[in-house]
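Reviewer 2 asked us to include a model.

Predict the structure of this chain.
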Amino acid sequence: MTTPRIYLIHATPVAIAPINEAFTRLWPQASLANLLEDSLSGDLADAGEITPGLNERFLKLATYAAESGADAILFTCSAFGDAIDLCKRSLTIPVLKPNEAMIEEALQRSHNICIVATFQPAITSMTEEFHHYAMQQGIALELTTLICPSALDELRKGNTARHDAIISEAIKASGVSELLCFAQFSMTSAADQAGLPVLTTPDSAVMKLKRLLDR
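Predicted model (structure tokens):
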């Protein structure tokens, strides 16, 4: 079997290291290509919603990856669900949202889930995805959310330890006791300090891609 070529498309540089580390650990045979367009997150925050222009920019990135020989595409920013759905419909190769594999795994484990995020738009997108998938499966879902925006500010400054501590402190202060789902690839480093069971998007996404391309 030829080496599978996976294109990783990022809207923020802080997502790059966590997903590459997950591939190294879980599927080192995959050949990776990283595409970064780091104005997307800021433009989404300014617009307040996914616009037709943002949809078109995502489709151009995905089409470029497909034309460059991608066997599959994984988007790593959780806030752009509708734009990624457009790419899924437009391409014939597997295209994964960053969250979908984790959501599937989470609902197999629990129907009482807390989404933790450091970027507010990721909560909106992931909440919609959770409820949509739960409805498809006939699952009565109890979903809570927790947002830690100051943690992302610290991570962007390179303060990973402080980022992790802020998330851990927020989880403990909130009193949540359910299964935690970290909404962003950039949050993975905080999983060990959470004090509760945690699912992260990178590990779930890598394993789903491996299953898809091993078929």
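The longest strand covers residues 5-10. Strands lie at 5-10, 31-36, 72-75, 95-96, 112-117, 142-147, 179-182, 198-200. We have added this to the supplementary material.
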